[in-house]
Amino acid sequence: MLRGTANFEELARRAPVIDALNDLEPASCRQADVLQVMYEIATLHREAMLPPALHPTDPPLVSWLFYRCPASPWGSFSMAQTRIECRSGLRLRAYLVSSIVDNTTAADALRRHWGFAIHAGRIELHRHYDSTRATVVTEHGTILDVIVSDPNPLSPGDVQYVANVNLAHTPRGLRLVQVEPRYQVERLERGQPRVITFDSASWGDPRIEPVYPISASFALADIAIPRVRYVCRPDALAFDGTEAVD
Amino acid sequence: MQFGLFFELSVPRPFTADAERRVFENALEQARVADELGFDSLWVVEHHFLEEYSHSSAPELFLTACAMQTKAVRLGHGAVVCVPQMNHPVRVAERAAVLDILSGGRLEFGTARSSTWTELGGFAVDPDDTKKTWDEYVRVLPKMWTQERFAHEGVSFSMPERAIVPKPLQKPHPPLWVTVTSPGTELDAADRGIGCLGVAAASYAEQERRTKEYRRRIQLCDPVGAVNNRVATLNFLYCHEDQKQAGSTGLLMLSVFGLLNAHLLSTREVYPTRAYQSLGNLAPRASSDDGSPGERRAVPEGIAIGSPEQIIAAVKRWESIGVDSINFIVNAAEVVPQEQVLQSLRLFAGDVMPAFP
Fold this sequence. Notes:
The structure holds two protein chains of two kinds. Chain A is mainly β. Chain A contains four helices and 15 strands. Chain A has a 15-stranded mixed sheet that branches. Chain B has helices at residues 17-37, 59-69, 89-102, 117-122, 130-146, 185-192, 204-218, 243-262, 267-270, 308-320, 338-352; strands at residues 2-7, 41-44, 74-81, 107-112, 150-153, 158-162, 176-180, 195-198, 231-239, 304-306, 325-329. At the A-B interface, strand 4, strand 5, strand 13 and helix 4 of A face helix 4, helix 8 and helix 9 of B.
């Protein structure tokens, strides 16, 4: 059974700080646009990109998850995440490499309460009848540009979103924080993705090399981000290192 | 009640040449012993690219070896993946016929469509198409086996008239099955008059519901060939006189298998589609995959891990809800030493099988 080999102390230097676990009400974003893009990535570094608590998938995958939220407790905001799909124990999870948020209030809340590693940037989602284009621009320039073509309508239940594990400094120490947004999908389309630009170094891991497109989905959904229920030690397998958060 | 073995051919890391050879040799020895002990069938999966979980990418070859080394046990393709990028239907029909001849008419023929992205993506298969291609395969295979000459114009393949030879020894053809993981596939089986090869751990209640629905519906079937009205389920077997010993060894096997299974990359996880409504592949999980990552998989109901008396009780329960046969996984990634696997088989044959004459 493969497991991560990343040096989590090194990762810890970039990890955000959570002052208190579960010190706020769940957050919700109504009528959000949710774009998820899945790509196979090069196998060479699949273990090295994950902390020892997590297991890589076969083949290894990156998922890019975009939210465009017109209303939230922090006002309207957009977010883009780069995640590596993985397993935590028996569970399907996605390890957050980093994220970009365009609203400082939202960024601060997501960082301090759910452990999102966040940088400032601009996120654009352009929806057309035949395609969708998503771009992420930061001080480093365009760090992600992806086009999704051939939209094909599906039923709301046909998509699956995987919970995050975000590495963060918590009052319990360095932990993988499980963030489990709930999605109430109203409309769903699947399309074919094509990555034009992906600056993996600017996202935080230059070893992520997209090699084969799998799918993209575009949904209209209500998103609820509940309180954190579980955290895991990054150096122990989930069966031994999981802690419930009261 | 009939009993079979179910081979995944899982290989522990590191993948040395010797590790793979040992798995195959151990499985062949288990097949020979099962044949001598009176087991009814041996089932071998077809999987591709699934490191550790299953190195059984050429089951027709493994089954041929089984055919040559056994006398009476029936040989189950469990199951052939019915998508053209992996297996052209003509080659499927030809290989099955040869295997049926070489085994003296002992072939049971399972069909499937694969459920992991690792496999479908590796062969550039569109997941939306697999149900359609499977359906086309199960309708043409009996014709290929029974008609002197065959021509076809279809969705996944077309061909001018040819004589597909040889023909199977069994007449009109080997029994057909379909693997059942997703809810509703038992209805597809019933509608086509083919056997229900359960490969997911179902509870007593769920299996009873599926079996009743299957039995009711198959009465009205539009058969694709000779009707095979049988229901088989999957289970895990470790039989030992000492319950505690049986539990510790058997549950270790179950736990390792569950972990390998949970780490498969299901199609549904990465490719939104109507064609895969469950994660499939032996151990369906909640679609949300909600909950604590610290939780281990619960022990399924009716598991055949325990003393002979405990296993008899579990099998009687399966029998009472209409199951015709149970296929057992007897090892996972070689965590159970081969001698203990063989002892378990012998004890099962000596103390459990006689309760089901």
